[in-house]
């Protein structure tokens, strides 16, 4: 049985059973009910041994009161009570005459009787002699009988009958006294002391305990129930290394509620990710590319989905004492017009430009947002050669991934580059500068004061089946808990922007 159905079904069953039990107990069975119980049935050998000394003189005579040869006496105390949930009126008794109930004492006859306790003194008015209370004998069946009147009783009202009984003509043990009668829309039955739990109550409690134990066992040992949006399968994610940490963390969160979903990664740059999905993604919904910015030309079959606005930063080697750059100064640096940091008030160090390789979404975003769309064309060398040879004048090198960018800027004195801000913020040896006096934060971007930001997109080859893991994971990123992961990394989900058009995949001019 599916554990999810069990976890849902058992509480529903328990609720239905509880409701039925309540209705059965208090509406059907106990709606109108007269109960009785024998509280004492003990033999006595004389007045001295009576549990109630002196009461024999008060008993109303019944049966053959003139008979002085009473043998084998016993005292019986019986409680008659309204055990239902509604009142009982005189008209509710179904007997044809003034008598409402009959107490039967098989194999014994009534020598005397008395009313010994009333829950309400008003009840005594209905139990006086002449109102229907009397003792008699059924000689044919050897049964002593006490007739009781039609006493109206509110809920929980009760009275008690004390009877002195003598052995009848039949030898042997005495059967239990019984109360006979009929109620309209109700019944007469034996009851028990309320100090303990009834069998019905014990059975009901046992049922609830079983439900709780089963649910606890499922929660402890059973498999996790499927959750809304959980789709099992395998999904490969390729593309932007700048957005890789966000995607990895989001996938980890997704698997917490959907452990049957598995993810593989190949973040080697936005352009390479687009090319991979273009070549291998046709008819394959298990492949997605994540890019920094919109796709380049040449990918007509790829369908884009905006994910988030991401914050990028210009980063410098920690040694130059330069903490703020204007947009114009950044352009002058990357176009070779500033060759030494002392021009900007920093140390006497030649400028080393570190670029991402062509095809990088981060490089494309940098050129569009800060360089006015112009491409960087300067003499290039390997970053290792720049570090070792330290040639004079401005020089540049290229790196393929975000991690390589951070490593190169941290290792080369005088280096300047760019990367996602969240990755740079925690990297030793690298400092993210402010641009035009504005810090690389989400609030500055949303206020349109910080210029270096971009939009992250997901691309598939054609439309995705709605029941695919790729479609479910994208819904998780845009409409589910994945948005929390994006915000944790400093981004802003596109759906939360005041102007969603800012996530439109259109290249800035």
UniProtKB/TrEMBL annotation:
<feature type="domain" description="PBP">
    <location>
        <begin position="232"/>
        <end position="478"/>
    </location>
</feature>
<feature type="transmembrane region" description="Helical">
    <location>
        <begin position="201"/>
        <end position="222"/>
    </location>
</feature>
<dbReference type="Pfam" id="PF12849">
    <property type="entry name" value="PBP_like_2"/>
</dbReference>
<keyword id="KW-0472">Membrane</keyword>
<feature type="transmembrane region" description="Helical">
    <location>
        <begin position="6"/>
        <end position="27"/>
    </location>
</feature>
<keyword id="KW-0812">Transmembrane</keyword>
<dbReference type="InterPro" id="IPR024370">
    <property type="entry name" value="PBP_domain"/>
</dbReference>
<keyword id="KW-1133">Transmembrane helix</keyword>
<protein>
    <recommendedName>
        <fullName>PBP domain-containing protein</fullName>
    </recommendedName>
</protein>
<keyword id="KW-0732">Signal</keyword>
<dbReference type="InterPro" id="IPR050811">
    <property type="entry name" value="Phosphate_ABC_transporter"/>
</dbReference>
């Amino acid at each position: 049985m599916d554990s999810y159905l069990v976890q849902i079904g058992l509480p529903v069953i328990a609720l239905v059973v509880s409701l039925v039990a309540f209705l059965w107990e208090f509406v059907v069975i106990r709606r109108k009910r007269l109960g009785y119980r024998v509280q004492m049935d003990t033999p006595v050998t004389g007045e001295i041994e009576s549990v109630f000394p002196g009461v024999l003189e008060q008993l109303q005579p019944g049966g053959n009161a003139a008979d002085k040869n009473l043998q084998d006496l016993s005292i019986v105390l019986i409680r008659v009570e309204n055990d239902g949930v509604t009142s009982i009126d005189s008209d509710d008794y179904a007997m044809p005459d003034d008598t409402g109930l009959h107490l039967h004492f098989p194999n014994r006859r009534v020598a005397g009787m008395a009313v010994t306790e009333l829950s309400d003194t008003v009840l005594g008015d209905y139990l006086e002699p002449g109102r229907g209370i009397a003792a008699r004998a059924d000689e044919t069946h050897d049964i002593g009988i006490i007739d009781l009147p039609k006493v109206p009783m509110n809920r929980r009202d009760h009275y008690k009958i004390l009877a002195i009984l003598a052995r009848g003509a039949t030898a042997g043990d005495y059967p239990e006294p019984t109360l006979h009668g009929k109620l309209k829309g109700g019944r007469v039955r034996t009851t028990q002391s309320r100090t303990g739990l009834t069998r019905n109550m014990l059975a009901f409690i046992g049922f609830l305990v079983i439900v709780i134990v089963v649910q606890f066992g499922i929660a402890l040992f059973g498999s996790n129930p499927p959750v809304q949006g959980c789709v099992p399968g395998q999904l490969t994610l390729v593309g932007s290394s700048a957005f890789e940490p966000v995607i990895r963390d989001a996938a980890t969160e997704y698997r917490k509620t959907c452990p049957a979903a598995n993810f593989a990664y190949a973040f080697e740059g936005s352009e390479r990710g687009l090319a991979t999905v273009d070549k291998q993604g046709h008819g394959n919904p298990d492949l997605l590319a994540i890019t920094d910015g919109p796709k380049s030309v040449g990918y007509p079959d790829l369908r884009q989905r905006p994910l988030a606005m991401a914050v990028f930063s210009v980063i410098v080697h920690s040694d130059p004492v330069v903490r703020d750059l204007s947009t114009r100064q950044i352009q002058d640096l990357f176009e070779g017009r500033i060759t030494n940091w002392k021009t900007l008030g920093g140390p006497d160090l030649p400028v080393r430009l570190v670029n991402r390789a062509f095809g990088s979404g981060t490089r494309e975003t940098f050129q569009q947002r800060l360089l006015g769309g112009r491409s960087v064309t300067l003499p290039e060398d390997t970053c290792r050669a720049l570090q070792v040879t330290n040639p004079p004048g401005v020089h540049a090198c290229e790196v393929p991934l975000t991690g390589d960018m951070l490593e190169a800027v941290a290792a080369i004195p005088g280096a300047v580059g760019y990367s996602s801000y969240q990755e740079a913020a925690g990297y030793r040896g690298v400092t993210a500068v402010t641009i035009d006096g504005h810090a690389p934060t989400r609030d500055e971007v949303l206020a349109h004061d910080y210029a270096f930001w971009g939009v992250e997109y997901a691309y598939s080859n054609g439309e995705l089946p709605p029941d695919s893991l790729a479609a479910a994971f994208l819904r998780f990123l845009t409409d589910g808990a994945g948005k929390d992961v994006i915000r944790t990394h400093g981004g802003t989900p596109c759906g939360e922007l005041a102007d969603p058009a800012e996530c439109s995949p259109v290249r800035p001019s």
